Amino acid sequence: MKTGVTECIFEARNLNYTYPGNIKALSGLSLTIMTGELVALLGANGSGKSTLLKLLDGLVFPSSGELLAFGKPLSEKALKDGSFVMEFRRNVGLVFQDPDVQLFSPTVWDEVTFGPLQLGIPRDEIVGRAMEVLELLNIGHLRDRPPYRLSSGEKKKVSLASVLSLHPQVLLLDEPTTGLDPWSQGNLIDFLMRWSEEGKTLVFSTQDLDVVEEVASRIIVLGTDHGLVADGKPEQFLADPDFLLRTNLVHEHSHRHQELVHRHRHFHEHQH
Amino acid sequence: MHIPDGYLSPATAGTMYAASVPFWYVATKQVRRTLTNRTVPVLALFAAFSFVLMMFNVPLPGGTTGHAVGGTLLAIIVGPWAAVLGISVVLGIQALFFGDGGILALGANCFNMAIVLPLAGYFIYKVLAGDSEANSSRRLLAAVAGSYIAINIAALLTGIELGIQPTLFHTADGTPLYAPYNMNKALPAMMGGHLLVAGPIEALVTGLVFAYLQRSSFDLIATEAPKKGGGKLWLLWGALSLVALATPLGLLASGTAWGEWGSGELKDLGLNFIPNGLKRFEGWWPAPIPDYGWSRMGATIGYLLSAFIGIALVAFLAWVIGRRLIRKTAGESAPSESPPKMKSESFLSKNISHITQALESVLFSEDLGRAPGLLQGLDPRVKVVTLLLFIVIVSLARSLPILACIFFMVMVLSILSKVPLGFFLKRVLLFIPIFTAVIAIPALFITPGDALVIVGDKVIITEQGARTAGFLVLRVLDSLSLGVLLILTTPWDSLLRALRWLRLPALFVAILGMTYRYIFLLLHAVNNMFLARKSRTVGSLSGAENRRWLARALTTTLAKSHHLSEEVYLAMLSRGYRGEVVTLDNFSLRRRDFFWGIFAVVIAAIILWRSNL
What we know:
The complex is a heterodimer of chains A (272) and B (613). With 272 residues, chain A is an alpha/beta fold. Chain A is built from 10 helices and 10 strands. Chain A has helices at 49-56, 82-91, 99-102, 108-118, 123-136, 152-164, 182-196, 209-215, 234-238, 241-246; strands at residues 8-19, 23-34, 38-43, 64-69, 72-73, 92-95, 170-174, 201-205, 218-222, 228-232. In chain A, the strands form 2 sheets. Chain A has a 6-stranded mixed β-sheet, with helices on both faces. In chain A, strands 2-1-4-5 form a 4-stranded antiparallel β-sheet, covered by helices on one side. Chain A starts with 7 loop residues before the first strand and ends in a 26-residue tail after the last helix. Chain B has a domain at 15-258 and 295-332 and 349-355 and 502-574: Arp2/3 complex 21 kDa subunit ARPC3 (Orthogonal Bundle). Chain B contains 23 helices and 4 strands.
């Protein structure tokens, strides 16, 4: 499962997903995600973004259609195979939208070591990795805290750390910037951009068009009918007000004053 | 119904652990088969829910409040075996963090409330519900009856466990070493309260939540495919009558215990014993609270009366809930009734302050556990083992001065561990020891033995009576303070590690840890619900309105727990969880751990040697 330069990571053909009670979450979705892409997943509430991320992480399985990961089918049966599931989980990490779901261990340290421990990584290495990610996200001081004693921003960081300790090649994030203050948001974006520079793949869902503009090399937009409505370069779509309105990405009372916003990417270290 | 340490002899406590282990084993097997990899998150979230449920003060018709166990409700929702494990976890957390129930007595408490209660409740529910529709009123009635009967069976068991203590465990001169009341006093005391108060609360909460679940779209009430020859409604009445009739059997069976120190025997001792003086109370039955069965005849009547009043109450509740259910489904709005008014303000504030207090106290303990101090500096394994050793020693010791010395020692240890003494004493003394002292008072007067206080020519207090009261109060105080000291000086995660090292199954420890973590989340959510309600409430609401709101809040919490358990499971799966809990435990023993260990063993040996002289 080596990830080459232009290798195909996910291939979905005509994916459908229906929740019990015949509630449709995704319909007729086809897409391909390549190594090194920075994909933003857009769409109105309930358009199926979270479901798609869970599908890509092999947590739920399509009702119909085909999904390949690293060229192999990603099915319930395939994930029963011990070596495949270990390899897959080490390579693909998902950060859930709600950190309270992600943080289930007694302390931050237990949380960060949870993944590597389950995946049979040698114990000495686990300690090293955990220290490294805590350092990387500047949360070393939270090490012994229980999750209910973290602020919501800290929770988001620990959630990310708990997945990064797996050293994944592909990072799936469900609304990573939601609920963060602007400063933390900026930090997170910088971090993700730096992280992805090493040929890693990033797929994140978001409601924030500014984040998309700053980070994404490609956008995938899901419509209210749970199907694909757009797939391509962000510039292609974000400049089209009609398109944005149609897909519920903006409200007609809010305008994007692109020309007024001065943006620059800041890659310096944050030592706060 | 939570038995604190000090009420049961170590032999009884050990036996009850031994009796519980096979059930835990079967429950684990069963649950892992049905829930497979979901075992940990599902049990943890539902255990957290039942913990929250037990914290709710429920307004009862008449203006009093109380809390439910929810064992039958949980068994109906998650299945009986999952309920066994879930409630066991809750009882463990309550014993450790809130001193609610003893650590040695945990086996007995689990047997009564986490094993017998949900299994019996579920069985009765199943039999009575038969193949009825998921939203039928018969199923609701089955849940209500099941919960009422089951909690009373659990109370009966508790009464028996307490009642055998004085007969089996006493000193040569007849001083009871543990719970001082024998069967004919322990049983009525337990049963009276449960038939009349705790039972109706349990039935009420079960009925309200169940009815709410029936009406809502939550797919939580599992109904199996209709089976032929299911239960019949008459079984409900049969079972109810059985409980009513069977409870006094305990009384008859205890005749020998009574006879053991009956008045005849005492006259042989040349004592004009109290029961003679108490004979004048005999005509007083039925007393409002049938607590101490002065006379067997009176107690029996009291029993039957309690049973029938309780059953009538439950039948009434079931009828009211059922009627409201039917009315709601018919789309009518309930006309305003005139139940006993109770201030919604006090009800809401009571719950809010109760929950906030619990959260704050735990958070404060956590800070103490990580602060520097004598016990904080010790390896958690050494600490757990030595403090458990002391708790066992407390239950074995047979000398009052030594029991007093142990309490003194614990206070010194808490000072050396920089635990604020005021906080420590408040935490230890409040409620359980005071409650125990109240319970112990009658023992002063009714325990037969040598005269200690004589008024006129009557023996008022016997030496044995004074000593048995002393044993009970000191033992409760000692074990409780040792438990509190452990939890105040040990961070929760270290404690979990120590428990794993002590060979508690990793699955159990994982559930314990996760339950504790999500209790916080649910309590915060519930507290917000209470606050939101308070902010929108002007004036007072009726008890019925509060109860209806409570049912909604509980059901919302239940649905939240259910949803969270599924999401948490996916989050675990995503990071490579495959049903086996892998953990990273490293301990390092230092010189001080050895010194402390040696010190503890020496002290324990001295206590045992001195106290049995």
